[in-house]
Structures are given as C-alpha cells and as structure tokens.
C-alpha cells in the first residue's frame, strides 16, 4: 500500500489538485479571491510599498488561505479513512466500490458523463471580515474548502474514495495533503505573479480543459486498478515508464 500511494495514488492526487484549480468554477474566481485576501493590494501596492514587497505580502497571505482549505481537505481524508478502517473485514467489497467511484468520477471530469446538478452546484461565502490579514485569510481558505467541495466534487470524491481504501489514517491524510498541495501551489504562483496570471487567464482555461481530460483518464485507470486489485501492478508500471517518479514518497 505504501508503494501504491507513493507513486500511483500521490501522483493522481497531485494532478487532481491542479485540475481542480483549473476547473471552470474555480479558475475565473481566483483573481477576486486573491485581491480580497491581500486586502485589495493585488496587483496594486500600498503607498510607500514596492511592487515586489506587495507581491511577497500577497504570497504570504495566500499561504494562509491555502493552509485553510488544506486543513479542511486533510480532515476529510482522515474521516473517510477512519470510516474505511471500520470495514476492514469487507476490504474486497470496499475496493470494488471505491474503484467504481473513482472511475465514475474520472468519466465526469473528462466530460464523458454529465454530473448531477447537485454536484455542479457550489456555495459562495461572503465573509464580513476585512482582508489583508493572516487570520481572515485562513478562515476564508476554510470557507473555500467547504463551499467549493460540491464544485470540485468529482475529483475530490475520487481521491477520498481512494483514501477510504487506505490501511491507515496517516496514509489517507497524506493523500489529501498532496491533493491540497496540487490545488495550493497554483494559488501561490497566481498570487506571486498576479498580473501575468490575469493576462493569461484565457490560455489557462484552455489548458485546464486538456488537463481535466488527462486527469479523468488517470482516474478511470486508477479506478479499474483499485476495483480489480491491480493497483500494485499499476504503480510498478508507472515506475518503469516514468523512472523519475521513483524519487517520490
């Protein structure tokens, strides 16, 4: 299981996080969120503050935001893994159910299957606290984690299903930590290079669609591997095909 998660599972989780960032209901709202998080300083600096200083300040506050939704996702990972451990006697059946869920999520991400309306819905939070401070940024990140969970549900649900098959809570938490990393790194890069990010938003949307298809294919293959009990073989195949992955985990 360690090899499975260190190669196949963690790679899927990280790519899934990036795909979630580039999804149609997250990417267009990133500039507004970053501007609020930094107290309206992105990409404009305060009086007497250099552009570089403003960018690094925005990066720090965005780090608090990323920490907020990471806490939510890691907690979800711990919860589903704990529940999964209650059904250790039914590990075979659990793997089949989880594999089907992961593959189905992959088909939704690819656009091959239309997701139910409740999955496509998301909930916006309009916090009354002022931006530009670490604690509000942290709370806003947690609100993002809860409010956008239905929107990024297909990818997140697939990762959680994989986490439910983990043999330990720490493995499930690690899996969701890597997912949060994949979602958080683009946020941090967008904060640091806000002007460039805004100009290239259209290109990122097109790239996001391609990445969603790739992610969907990976999730379908992963789901089949989990359901058939061939996840170890899939991990070994990844190692042989992409030797650089041997340094992960």
From TrEMBL:
Keywords: Cytochrome c-type biogenesis, Membrane, Transmembrane, Transmembrane helix. Residues 11-225 form the Cytochrome C biogenesis protein transmembrane domain. Its main location: membrane. The keyword Cytoplasm does not apply. It is a multi-pass membrane protein. The keyword Transmembrane helix applies. Signal peptide: none annotated. It comes from the Bacteria. It is found in: Membrane. The chain crosses the membrane at residues 6-30, 65-90, 96-117, 138-162, 174-198, 210-232. Belongs to the DsbD family. This is Cytochrome c biogenesis protein CcdA.
